[in-house]
Amino acid sequence: MKKQRIRNIIGAALIIIALSSTVAAMVYETKKTIYRESSGHLVEIAHQMSDRFSEQCKTNWNVLDSFVQDYSLVYKTGNKENMVSFLSDYRRTWGYLHLFFIDENGSFIYETGKVSKLQFDNSQSIYRVVANQERVVAPATDYDGTEILLFAAPVEAFELEEYTIKGAGICYEVQTMLESMNINAFKESCDVYLLDEEGITVARSIHEGSMDAYNVVNAIEKENPKIEDLKQQLLLGSNEGVMQIKAGGRDTYLSYTSVAVTGWKQLLMVPVDVVNNEMQNYTQVTGALVVILILIAAAAIVGIVHYFYRINAEKRQKEIELEYEHKANESKSHFLANMSHDIRTPMNGVLGMATLAAANIDDKQKALGYIEKIQISGKYLVSLINDILDVSKISEGAFEIAADSMNMRDFINEIRTVVDPLAADKKQSFTIETEIQNEYVIGDKLHLNQIGINILSNAVKFTPQGGKIWLTIVERPGISEEYAHYHLEFRDNGIGMKKEFLDHIFESFTREKDSTINSIEGSGLGMFIVKSLVELMHGTIHVDSEPGKGTCFCVDLELEIDREGTMEEKEENTDNAKFVRGKRVLLAEDNMINREIAVEMLREMGAFVATAENGQEAVEEFAQSPLRYFDVILMDVMMPVMDGYEASRTIRKLEREDAQTILIIAITANAFQEDVIESEKAGMDAHLSKPLDFAALSEKIAVLTRHKRKG
C-alpha cells in the first residue's frame, strides 16, 4: 500500500510538471500571438484608411474632370450670368472648398475672377500642371490659414478676361478629408500622417502628446537611432509594413502604407498598450483558465488517490443498502400478507355471520347475536382501512393537522367514553388523573383523540383480564406565556415488550412475533401512525416497557393557550333522537344499498325522507320545495352529474330565504382532515364519514339544531 502511495505521488508530480511546462509554452506562444494579431489588426486598419483616401482622391478627380467638361459647354454660350449660376450650383453639389483656374504664369484665379493668395510648400508642382500637362496633388495654405489639399489638372487653353487659362483645380480642407478616412478604433489614440515623397507632412490627425513635426520621418529616426535605414524603409522601400518604435518615449506600433498619390505614404502610429489591451485581457483570461485547469487536475488526482482508499468502504455501503432494501421489501411483503389475513378475517366473519343470520331469521335471539358480530367485524374492518389510508397520507406528506379551539376536558371525556367499555369487557380498571390549569387550547382534537385511543386500545388488548390501565395528564409551563406543556402518560401492567422490539415499535409494517399475542388482532400500523401524528403536532413520544411488567408511553405536546375560551361547553342531552323525530330530511346518495339503509334507519328514527340520486337532483328537489320545507340535507360527496360539494355551493347561492339556513351534513367515505376542510368551504355544516353511525348522526343533528345556522 505504501509503494502504491509513492507511485501515486510521483505520478501526480509528473502530471503537474507537464502542466506547468504546457503553461510556460502557452505564455510564450501567446506573446507571439499578441504581436502577430496586434500588428495584423493595425495593418488591416491602415488598409481601410488608405482605401478610403484612394476612393476620396478618385472622386475628386472625377468631380474635376466633370467640371472641366461642363464648364466648356457653359462658357461657349458667352452668358456670364449663366456661368456664375452654374459655378454656384456645382460647388453646392460637390462640397469642395474652392475652385481655381490656373493661368500660364501659375497664378490661381477664383471662379469669381479674383487672384488667389495660396501658399504652397512646393510651388514647382503647380508649374508641372501648366508646363508639363500633369495632374498634381499638392498641399497648400489658404488665405485664412486653412490647410487645404489641391487637386489640379491641365485644360485646353482659353481666355478668361485678361488671363490665359491652362489648368483648373479644386481644393478640400485637409481635416475634412482625414475625418472621412477615420475609423473608430484604438479608443481615439491613433495618429495619422500623410507624407509626400520627401517625407514632408502633407496632412496629419494627431492627439495630445503625439509627434507634431514638419518632417515626421526625421523625428522618428532621431528617437530610434538603432533602427537602420528607417527613411529608406518608410519612403523608398516596400509599399507597406509594420514595426515597433519609440514615439514620445512610448512603445508604439508604426504601420506604413502607400496611397493613391504617387510617392506618398500613410503612417499610422498607435501605442502598444492600446493595441494589445484586448489581447492582454484574453491572455489574462486564458491564464486564469489554465490555473483553474491545473487546480482541477490536481483535485482530480487527489480524488483518484482518495478513491482507492474509499472504494472498499463504498462497496460495503452498497452491500448494506442492498441488504436494507431486501429487508424492507421482505417486511412489506410480510405486511401485505398480514394485511390480507387481517382484512379477510373480519370479511369472512361478516359474510359468515350474514349467512347464519339469514339461515336463522326465525330465531330472533340467534339472528340478533349474528348481527351484533357482523357489526363488530365491520367496525374492525373500517379501522383497518382507516389505518391504511392514514399511512398512505402520512407517507405522501399530505396529512394536515387542524388548529382549532378545543377543550381538554372534552378530550378526556371522549377518551373515557371509548375506553371504559373496552376495559369493562375484560374486567380491567381504567383510571384518568389530571392536573390541568388551562382547559382551552388550540389544537387538533380529532387526531389527539386518535393518538390516545390507539395507545389505550393497545393497552386493553395486551393487558390480561383484571389488569390496570392509567392515563395521567399534567400541565407544565410552556415555552412562553402563550403556550402550555402537556405531559401525557399511558401506563398499563400488561405483558410488556422485549427490548429488541422496542427499537422498531414505531416502524410501519411491524408487529412483535410472540406466541402469546399472535391471536390478538392488529395491523402493525397503529404506533407508526401515533408517532407520525405526534411529530406533526411538533411533540415527542417515548416508550418504556419490560416483559411481564407492563408498558408506559409518554407524549409531550406544546399547545397554544386559547385565552378567550371561545369553545362552548358541550350541552348534555339524554335524548338526541327527539331532534330527528318529525324532521323532513333530503337524502342525496347515489349508491342504492346505502340509500336504502339510510332511508330505513331515518324512518325508524321518525324522520320524513325524500331522496335524490345525484347532486343535480338534490338541488332541483330543494329548489322546487316550499319555503323551509326541509330541515336538513344529508349530502353524499362523490356522486355523478354533480358532486356533493358543487351541489352544496349551488344551494347556498339560491335566491330563497332558507338557502343559507338549511342544515347540510356531508356523509362520505372521504374521511381525511382535508375532506372536512373542503366540506366547510363548500358551505356544509358538518362532516360524517361512512359507514354512517346513526347515533352520531342523531347527536350531530341535535347539536346543529340547538345552534342553528344563521343566514
Q: How far from one another are the termini?
A: 85 Å
List unreliable stretches of 5+ residues: 515-520, 566-574
Helical content class: 40-55%
Oligomer: single chain
> How much strand?
15-25%
Features:
about 700 residues, alpha+beta, seven-stranded mixed beta sheet, six-stranded antiparallel beta sheet, 17 helices, elongated
Structure description:
By secondary structure, the chain is an alpha+beta fold. It is 49% helix and 22% strand. The protein is built from 17 helices and 23 strands. The chain has helices at 2-75, 80-94, 124-131, 174-181, 216-223, 230-236, 272-359, 364-396, 408-425, 445-461, 499-502, 526-536, 592-604, 615-624, 644-652, 673-681, 694-706, and strands at 98-103, 108-110, 119-120, 136-141, 147-160, 163-173, 191-195, 201-205, 240-247, 250-258, 265-271, 404-407, 429-435, 440-443, 468-477, 483-492, 540-546, 550-561, 584-588, 608-612, 632-635, 663-668, 686-689. Strands 12, 13, 14, 15, 16, 17 and 18 form a 7-stranded mixed β-sheet that branches. A 6-stranded antiparallel β-sheet has the order 2-1-6-5-4-3, sandwiched between helices. It has a 5-stranded antiparallel β-sheet with strand order 8-7-11-10-9. It is elongated and about 155 Å long. Residues 515-520 and 566-574 have low confidence and may be disordered.
